[in-house]
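Input record (one chain):
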Amino acid sequence: MIKQSRPFFDSSTIPDDLCPIATALTPMLPGDWRSMRPVVDRAKCVKCAVCWLYCPVQCMLEKPAWFDVDLATCKGCGICAEECPHRAIAMVEEAA
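The corresponding structure, as predicted from the sequence alone:
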């Protein structure tokens, strides 16, 4: 067996307050800090589900004849609007 010349890692040299760990969950949702929000044009939506497939947080909600957006979890990234082949989703500025 080969002997290690020095120890791999010495944890005694790390200060206790270097990286504090969160102890309480924040009630903030992604929808609380977005600057743009998606708006679905129901007349253009053919329910192809491309927006649902590409949404990174799965905030697209399936309705009987179209897809809608759960604005509580939507972070406003705009991927749904960019990927929609029918241009049924537009990004609008979030009202203050």
